[in-house]
Amino acid sequence: MSTTLSMWLGIAFLVLAIVAVLLQAWLWGPKFWDDEAKKTRAPKAWLRVHAFAGYTYGIIYAVMMWNMLPRLWEYQYELPARTVIHAVLAIAIGVLLITKIMILLFFRHFEEAMPRYGFGLLICTVAMITLSVPFAIRAHDLEGRTTDPENIERVRKALADVEGGVGVDLDKVVTEAGFDRGRQVLVGKCITCHDMRTILAKPRTAKGWMNVNERMLEKPAVFGDALDPEDVPYVTAYLVAITPDIQRSAKSRREDAREKEARADALLEAIHDADTVLEVDKAAGEALLQAKCLDCHEMEETEAHGGDDASGWRSVIAAMVDEGAELTEEEINLLAAYLEVKFPKSAETKAAEAKKEAEDEAAAEAEAKKEAEEAAAEEAETEAEAEDEEEEEA
Prior knowledge:
Elements: H1 3-27, E1 33-34, E2 39-40, H2 44-74, H3 81-105, H4 114-139, H5 149-160, H6 170-173, H7 176-188, H8 196-199, H9 206-217, H10 232-271, H11 282-293, H12 299-304, H13 310-322, H14 329-342, H15 347-393
Helix pairs in contact: 1-2, 1-4, 3-4, 7-10, 9-10, 10-13, 11-14, 13-14
């Protein structure tokens, strides 16, 4: 199934779900519902319209599942989160749909529950389409960015500069139809074995995309259709055409990574900096602890760390920031100071640390003294050897 057909089927799927639920809310509403017979007395014509919407919805679901399920078995990599959620919602729709059809055909005494199943189908449908159709619309370049004249000229120039050429007339490849064919190759053959994120992880030059696609020709097609030599120029042109989008995405990721790294570095520099704040706003500290820390873990984990000073708590907070916690420098200082007050070091811990520090200093002094004695002994031995050599020469 082409991505274009899949996209429009998805949109129709959503529209039918909305229409069916609106009709259901009307036809099974108080106006037509027979509470004694536990069934609706709505006009037959409108019930047929509702049935038509429902069965059309079911047919689209069957067609899409017929094409989507085999791809799950062909996938070689762990499915990304969005795909997993999409698949779970699709399975849930199937269960609800079959249940609703069985009620209509064999268990009409459960007809009173039909609206609940209808709303359940709508919720799953909206969530599933939201996870898929917007990305398909963007991939189809409805905004015209890929086929913009300036972008087409850029792609043409990039492919013309490829050493050895691309093997076909650029007038055939660098067109809207050529880009569409390249997109179909990408989603129909490439992602059978690869996650799309793997393919589009970083931007490449035209020569780089050509080399990647030529290497794919040498690999056997374990699943799905193999990449054909005549596909290479088209998929290369399409990848070159969308490279600016990939570059912007990669740049955004790099900027986010640099910002996160800078925050972590700044926090690490502050870990052993400054003395404990004497005045702590305990109410603000507790509110910050509840808002920023206890959303992800229980208080027991904080207590399990044991008492610590501001430096130690900053180390803990640094690990939180590294795992995605969003804290400003002021919040970090307040939280570290508050945790030092709420969970201070015990006297035993301080004594043990002081003892260990003293032992480490004593060991370091002993090591330095030993090294000095060894150096003095070596120097004395060297001098003695020099004196012996002088006596022998004399």
